[in-house]
Amino acid sequence: MKRICLIFFLTACLLPVYAQISPVIPSSVSVAGASSAVMNDWSAFHNPAALAHVDRTEIAAQFENRFMMKELSTKSVQAGFNTGPVNVGLSFSYQGYSVYNEMIAGLGLARNFGDKFSMGVQFDYYTAYFSASDESRYRGAVLAQFGVASTILPKLTVGFNTFNPFQTNIKTEFSTRRIPSVFSIGTNYAFADNLIWLTQIDKEASSNFRFASGFEYTMIRELTVKLGAYGTDYLIPCLGFGIHLGGFHFHLNGELHPLLGLNTVANLKYRF
User: Fold this and answer.
1) Over pLDDT 70: what percentage of the chain?
2) At 53, is the secondary structure helix, strand, or coil?
3) pTM value?
4) Rounded distance, CA 127 to CA 229, Å?
5) How far apart are CA 222 and CA 243, in angstroms?
6) DSSP state letters, 123-140
7) pLDDT per residue over 152-197, tens digit each?
8) Helix boundaries (H) for the chain
9) What is the DSSP letter of 179?
């Protein structure tokens, strides 16, 4: 009982921190979560326009350990398929534990228009599990994602995406579970083939702006290092690295919140 009370207390404390993006949405592998304009590494539930740049079948699994508590962890899987005129993506995310959990299943469609402009849309089914003395059941809702990206200069890409733009919520007999509605715009500037600078601004419909920026440097073909930060109420530093061995790509990112502690993300992807 004490453990359950502790989880609920920490979850309540985390609500202002994650007002921008729901914990059930997996973090991207880009530094500081600045993925809106990253087209060469698709992350499910972020900009679906990146799916248009998947040139071969790929699968990935990800585990996010929020502040060293398994009850707050997020687990996700995704698969992208190049089918010719339209690319297809499948994704699934699970966050929580037995008493309360949330899930999203997504189907994405995206197309690349001449390598200068790409567009994607994703349809998600979001469910939350409510456990109470009188009933225990899942409640769900269908929502959408939309994203575009354009290379406006040879070294500069701009991306825009939105999660739940129509502000769909889950309604029960006694309450309404609000699903975040997030709008994001970002840039990707390539100083060189092995050094990029990412920026992003996020706005949740009822929350403050989130600002993110970072650099990703590919030291050698097999190793990428990442350094950045994002801020809402606090400035949160972010570090990470990526290892690329043939078709295997492994990313490990970490961020340090000044009050809540360490948050880590591990992602393993294989491109056939």
Assistant:
1) 88
2) helix
3) 0.87
4) 31
5) 5
6) EEEEEEEEE-SS-EEEEE
7) 999 999 999 999 999 988 877 767 778 889 999 999 999 999 999 9
8) 2-17
9) P
Domain ranges across the chain: 2-271
C-beta of residue 93 within 8 angstroms of C-beta of residue 31: no
Cα 218 to the chain's mean position, in Å? 22
The token pair at 167 is 């502000």
22, 7, 30, 85: which is closest to 224 by C-alpha? 30
Secondary-structure class of domain 2-271 per CATH: mainly beta
Say how far apart CA 145 and CA 182 lie, in whole Å.
Answer: 10
Which pLDDT value is given to residue 260?
84
Residue type, 84: G
For residues 34 and 46, what is the distance between their CA atoms, to the nearest angstrom? 10
Cα separation, 148 vs 142, in Å, equals: 21
**111 to 56, 154, 246: CA distances (angstroms):** 14, 20, 26
CA 191/CA 126 separation, integer angstroms: 39
Question: 197-227 pLDDT, tens per residue?
Answer: 999 999 998 888 999 999 999 999 999 999 9
Say if residues 103 and 127 touch (Cβ distance below 8 Å).
yes
Q: From CA 216, how far away is CA 196, in angstroms rounded? A: 5
Residue 43 exposure: Cα atoms within 13 Å on the Cβ side: 21
